[in-house]
Specification:
The longest helix is centred in the middle third of the chain and has 21 residues, at 175-195. It is built from 13 helices and 16 strands. It has two domains: 4-127, Enolase-like, N-terminal domain (Enolase-like, domain 1, 2-Layer Sandwich); 134-425, Enolase-like C-terminal domain (TIM Barrel, Alpha-Beta Barrel), CATH 3.20.20.120. It is of the alpha/beta class.
């Protein structure tokens, strides 16, 4: 019997030491699906709402007891007896119960935990791997890891303006080879930083957080670390950026403040900066290169750079089908960052991925800076063939858990899967 019989909800800690929601969905046959919800530091204004208590006497107001109450007292009575296999029906009920566009009534953290927990319970009940349970096809692609090895922005104070400098080991035949090489470059980078008397403390996502003289200096460090590890830039490794430009943007002045470079700059000039960097370094992807409501500048950037670089919308699109449709029609961006907690249910996440892929956009499955040990995004990336995944540096347990899960999936699938590799970026690699 795959009907929902019980729900347990609890407060646990995420990787930043803040509380978050974890839920057990218990089926009639005894199968249990446990899911925890991550939380972001730099969040888009159009994300689904994460419900917090606001009680200053607990966790400085960040407690999630209201979310737990909504799960056990409001959601559970309405989903008890529902079939966990019917994900779309379950998610429709959750959306109906909330009744708001942004999940602000019950909280996206409440809704998502139940949605994902039900999927995991159904997979256990059918004795399937989670990726197999939610998959649309059996032609699996293991995603290329985008490893955030230098943290900046809101993830690491007093480092660079750019939030993430990522190495992309696309030039390998398997995920296991790619993650090994990524780890080697990460270790080489640590040695280089130490040799320059730069800090090797890490930010929220496990990347190093040195105080740098310029944003471009981080790119130079990545090139050196790749070379010192015995690999070739533009062959084995490429570079990706997450600017998180909304955090640098002054909406009144319509300028971006790059404190590390000591300048303010327009959207057009920032696009030119990316173009200059791409001519010197093997950059294949830039995420949130401009602020989330600067649609005209996004359109210009896509026109100028879209044939050379993957331009990923995170804050711009928020894993939201209506925002994605606007991006497609506006020809703003050419790839989607996928964060399930931005939209709030598994069904809506799948819809967003399908929409982006239907027009040939790239898709990148993503963690959040405040993470848990939950590895669901690894399974989801494989199930939907996103071809790319972000889970931070090859360090810290909440990050490596996702990568280790992909190693195991690749091993289990064997000849039934292929590693995305350089094919994922074929349109951007000369």
């Amino acid at each position: 019997m795959t009907t929902i019989d019980n729900v347990n909800a609890r407060e646990i800690l995420d990787s930043r030491g803040n509380p978050t929601v974890e839920v057990d969905i218990v089926l009639k046959d005894g199968s249990v699906g446990t899911s925890a919800v991550p939380s972001g530091a730099s969040t888009g204004q159009y994300e689904a709402v994460e419900l917090r208590d606001g009680d200053g006497n607990r966790y400085h107001g960040k407690g999630v007891l209201k979310a737990l109450h909504n799960i056990t007292e409001i959601i559970f009575p309405h989903i008890k007896g529902m079939n966990a296999y019917d994900q779309e029906e379950l998610d429709a009920k959750l959306i109906e119960l909330d009744g708001t566009e942004n999940k602000s009534n019950l909280g996206a953290n409440s809704i998502l935990a139940v949605s994902l927990g039900a999927a995991k319970a159904a997979a256990k009940s059918s004795k399937q791997e989670l990726y197999s349970h939610i998959s649309r096809s059996e032609n699996y692609i293991i995603p290329v890891p985008m490893l955030n090895v230098i943290n900046g922005g809101k993830h690491a104070e007093h480092s660079s303006d750019i939030q993430e400098f990522m190495i992309v080991p696309a030039g390998f035949k398997t995920f296991a080879q790619a993650i090994r090489a990524g780890s080697e470059v990460y270790q080489s980078l640590q040695k280089i930083l130490s040799g320059k008397n730069l800090s090797t403390t890490v930010g929220d996502e496990g990347g190093f957080a040195p105080s740098l003289p310029s944003n471009e200096a981080a790119l130079e460090l990545l090139v050196d670390a790749i070379s010192d590890s015995g690999y070739e830039c533009g062959v084995h490794f490429f570079i990706a950026l997450d600017t998180a430009a909304a955090e640098l943007f002054d909406p009144n002045e319509k300028i971006y403040k790059l404190d590390c470079d000591g300048i303010t700059i327009s959207g057009t000039a920032l696009t030119s900066t990316y173009q200059k960097w791409a001519a010197k370094y093997p950059i294949v992807s830039i995420e949130d290169g401009l602020a989330d409501d600067e649609w005209d500048d996004w359109k210009e950037m896509t026109h100028r750079l879209g044939n050379e670089i993957q331009l990923v919308g995170d804050d711009l699109l928020n894993t939201n089908p209506s925002r994605i449709e606007k991006g497609i029609k506006s020809k703003a961006a050419n790839a989607l960052l996928v964060k399930p907690n931005q939209i709030g249910t598994l069904t809506e996440t799948m819809e967003a991925i399908k929409l982006a892929q239907s027009v040939g956009w790239g898709t990148v499955m993503s963690h959040r800076s405040g993470e848990t040990e939950n590895t669901l995004i690894s399974d989801l990336a494989v199930a939907t063939n996103t071809g790319q995944i972000k889970s931070g540096a090859p360090a810290r347990g909440e990050r490596t858990a996702k990568y280790n899960r992909l190693i195991r999936i690749e091993e289990k699938l064997g000849a039934s899967c292929t590693f995305g590799g350089s094919d994922v970026y074929s349109r951007y690699i000369n």
